[in-house]
Amino acid sequence: MSDAPIVLTCGEPASVAPEITAMAWAALHYSPAHCFYLMGDADDFEARTRPLNLRVPVRRIDDASQAANVFSSALPVLHAPFPKPSRPAWLDTRNSTYVIDVIRRAAQACMIGTASAMVSNPINKDALYAAGFKFQGHTDFLASIVNEQGYEVTEVMMLAAGGLRVVPVTVHIPLRDVPEALTTEAIIAQGEVVAASLQRFFDVAMPRIAVTGLNPHAGENGAIGFEDRAIIEPAIERLRGRGINAFGPLPADTAFHAEARATYDAILCMYHDQALIPVKMLDFHGGVNVTLGLPFIRTSPDHGTALSLAGQGTARPDSLIAALKLAAEMAAKR
Question: Would the CA dihedral through 130, 134, 137, 139 be positive or negative?
Fold first, then answer.
């Protein structure tokens, strides 16, 4: 168990991040177990939250170790000014390099142990692309940071909500590219990471891993596409050969009702929407994105920047609060 605080990244400055961060601190500051500090611009945070009557006291800190003594009475902020002040719902790409750097610094803090876990406020990838960002999102960017330090990792994006844990084997790619991108090796690698993570962080002694098919009815023995028999079934067989209780491929249209969910601890899905639609239907506001396979813990809200809500004070902090709680629970089990 680590006594270090959680580091919360600023996310997209123009988003709902300042207001949900304020609400999350208000909900959690009574609990030392959920201590976190914000890596961002303290002045900008105050300027964005005060007009919304989110009067969260802010305390600038020089080092993460100071967060624990501050957290109960004020939001600790490891302060560095944005290049440009933020405006709600107005993307300013002059801040994009800053946002990228904060993610990198937060990951490094976790790797050296000054933070027990990383929780990421949402980013706007279009804004980051203008600054040369070349990744699909947080997940592969964090893996690249880790790889630079000499680690070899298989990064896995898991979404958790409503008692359901889903993993999209392929993530942010066009649907037409999924069959070509899907490989037996990728399913095996992600299945192994998921099984190990369920044991380590979620107290699941013998994980049950369901696997969906790619095609309707899981291909109907090759009548509706060959991928289920040629790619997915061999992966399941090899996972089972390695002692992992994997089964499928399951037709995706019958894999998520209550009785089916009771038969597995996590489910590998073949593409983004196949995984995210059911988890968001179960708990749209409370979902958490967890990156597995890294040498540190990282979670985030399972929603985007919500620019249409920014600056109104109506955004819900449920998902960020859930992400902070889960990060603390996972850190306690390291």
Answer: negative
Nearest alpha-carbon partner for 323 in 100, 17, 54: 17
**192 closest CA partner among 120, 242, 139:** 242
| Whether pLDDT at 2 is above 70 | no
Q: How far is the C-alpha of 138 from the C-alpha of 120, rounded, in Å?
A: 8
CATH 3.40.718.10 location in the chain:
6-152+294-332, 163-279
Q: What is 6-152+294-332's CATH number?
A: 3.40.718.10
**321-331: b or e for each residue (b if 16 or more CB lie within 10 Å)?**
bbbbbbbbbbb
| 240-251 pLDDT per residue, tens | 999 999 999 999
How far is CA 112 from each of CA 48, 108, 212, 268, 296, rounded to the nearest angstrom? 32, 6, 38, 31, 10
Residue 313 per-residue DSSP state: T
What is the spatial distance between Cα 81 and Cα 97, in angstroms, rounded to a whole number?
Answer: 12
Residue-wise pLDDT tens digits, 115-131: 999 999 999 999 999 99
| pLDDT attached to residue 1 | 41
Render pLDDT for 255-269 as a digit per residue (tens, 0 to 9). Answer: 999 999 999 999 999
Query: How far apart (Å, rounded) are the C-alpha atoms in residues 230 and 51?
Result: 58
What distances in angstroms separate CA 245 from CA 130, 142, 212, 217, one per listed residue?
44, 29, 14, 22
Are the CB atoms for 68 and 35 separated by under 8 Å?
A: yes
CA dist., res. 281 & res. 137, Å (int): 22
Helices 233-241 and 184-201: angle between axes, nearest 10 degrees? 40
Is the pTM of the predicted complex or chain greater than 0.90? yes
Tell me if the domain spanning 163-279 has CATH number 3.40.718.10: yes
Q: Provide DSSP, 183-197.
A: -HHHHHHHHHHHHHH
Residue where the block lists tokens 């002692």: 243
Considering all CA atoms of the chain, what is the largest pairwise distance in Å, rounded to the nearest integer?
Answer: 63
